[in-house]
Amino acid sequence: MNVQLDMPSRRFAFVGAALCLMVLSSVPAHASPWVLPKGATVFEVKAGTDFASREFLIDDGREQEFPLDGRFESYRLQLSSRYGAFEGVEFGAKISLQSATYTSDPIILPSEPGSGNVCNGDGATLDGCEQQVTDFTSSEFGFSDLYLNSVIQHIGGNARAASNIEIKIPTGYDAPAATFEGNRPSATAIADDVALGDGIVHLQYRLEPGAFIPSTGTVQEFAAGYRARQDGHDATTFSSIIPCTPARELDPSEVEQREFRLDYDFLRATAGIIVRLDGREVVLSASTIFWGENIARLSNISVGVVLPFR
Q1: What share of the chain in percent tops pLDDT 70?
Q2: pLDDT at residue 242 in the model
Q3: What distance in Å separates the CA atoms of residue 76 and residue 63, rounded to the nearest whole number?
Q4: Residue 246 pLDDT > 50, yes or no?
Q5: d(CA 48, CA 144)
Q6: What distance in Å separates the CA atoms of residue 27 and residue 160, rounded to the nearest whole number?
Q7: What is the pLDDT of residue 13?
Q8: How would you write the chain as a 3-class SS string?
């Protein structure tokens, strides 16, 4: 099992959508496609958590539990800023300090043929099996990706649409890799199981239409985009055919190899509330991925404070 915070996109394409419903006192200062007025600046501090215990598999998109009672959790503090550079055009940047953890039950792998330790059949020894205890639990902490973007508004008024062009730049963290070094299962060759991002530069275009409904004070938004990226991995990851099998009962015949790739597809639903207090906006939001391929079924809860400046 390999888990990333910026979970895996199709090698040269990204397909994603977000359906949003936000309860507002008025049109939000922070939400695209509501581009900031010329000369306006907005800073936002956001804290949030992502968590998952299920995944959508690569190739067939089958949804199942993480094997070995696995669970992914991450916590982030995100700093972002936006600036209205021209009428209908704004620029933005954001970066996050993150902690990501994947936990699961340890298992005992059989000894490789010819190895000095013995943990196979009748010849198994206690010392040999202790050396073959394999624990996929791991964690990472640090800065994830730097995002730079520009938003161009095409339609104004209560019904709006904008183009969002974004570049993502990794900050130097360890990129995700195959589960085992050399693609050979071994207790001493675990290469990676959690990462702060995918370690790849990407360029993304996203169309963001939306509508503000004055009678109810709500905003409805939809976003879909295309992501161009490089993905030159030639490795293997592993998944369980029967993921609910306890570690002590796991049979090697229940484990299948799959191609390790960083591409993914997903659909996400988001809902949130914005409260205005003394010129500041407090933003509460929650989201979940309800369909995908090669991605965890991530849920997110976050709270942020938006500080506008002129």
Answers
A1: 81
A2: 84
A3: 26
A4: yes
A5: 14
A6: 11
A7: 36
A8: CCEECCCCCCCCCCEEEEEEEEECCCCCCCCCCCCCCCCCEEEEEEEEEEEECEEECCCCCCEEECHHHCEEEEEEEEEEEEEEEECCEEEEEEEEEEEEEEECCCEECCCCCCCCCCCCHHHCCHHHHHHCEECCCEEEEEEEEEEEEEEEEEECCCEEEEEEEEEEECCCCCCCCCCEHHHCCCCCCECCCEECCCCCCEEEEEEEEEEEECCCCEEEEEEEEEEEECCCCCEEEEEECCCCCCHHHCCHHHEEEEEECCCCEEEEEEEEEEEEECCEEEEEEEEEEEEEECEECCEEEEEEEEEEEC
Of the candidates 288, 286, 285, the residue with the CA atom closest to the CA atom of residue 268: 288
Site of tokens 């649409």? 161
Return d(Cα 267, Cα 224) in angstroms, integer: 9
pLDDT in tens, 72-126: 999 999 999 999 999 999 999 999 999 999 999 988 877 776 666 677 767 777 7
Band (15; pLDDT cuts 50, 70, 90): very low
Q: Are 209 and 33 in contact (CB under 8 A)?
A: yes
Number of domains in the chain: 1
141 is written with which tokens? 């902490």
Q: Which amino acid is at 11?
A: R
Look up the domain containing 215 and give its range. 3-309
Backbone angles phi, psi at 252, to 5 degrees: -55, -25
239: tokens are 């998944």
